[in-house]
């Protein structure tokens, strides 16, 4: 009888870990599908984020905008093509978001560029880079961080990125 109790507990623990691992990222990732859940799904995508809208905040025939408010107060907007790929992300808030999660596969380019800037003596300066299919602008200070990143190759035809990220 005692052995069944522990087997049931182990199964529940394993199921909980599996569900937590499959929850997915709470923020947008360049080149991937938008992170906002469809209206029919009511669960949060992951701990640490609250969705401000279950549907796109803004919609046009060229792109949609989804917004997520992180528990730390930082707002993240993702701009997605009609095909469902995030071509740009923007953030504003008291805490810099996890850029490795936002940039996804593009993060290695960002990391390489920022490391080179540090080696050349630029520390603590705003990030202003455009390299290898990635543009990142990031600035701020404690309790006021803001910026955006986009992949020029993913921007839909007819979209002016400067108008989108104003």
The mean pLDDT is 76
Strand element count: 8
Uncertain runs are: 5-26, 36-47
Described by the principal axes of the CA atoms, the overall outline is: globular
Proportion of β residues?
Answer: 25-35%
In terms of quaternary structure, the protein is single chain
Sketch the topology as an H/E string, one letter per element.
HEEEEEHHEEEH
**Percent helix among the residues?**
25-40%
Overview of this protein structure:
The chain has 166 residues and is of the alpha+beta class. The protein has four helices and eight strands, in the order αβββββααβββα. It has helices spanning 2-21, 99-103, 107-119, 161-164; strands at residues 49-51, 58-59, 64-70, 75-80, 86-93, 127-131, 134-141, 144-150. Strands 1, 2, 3, 4, 5, 6, 7 and 8 form an eight-stranded antiparallel β-sheet that branches. It is globular, with a radius of gyration of 19 Å. It starts with a helix and ends with a helix. The model is unreliable at 5-26 and 36-47 (pLDDT under 50).
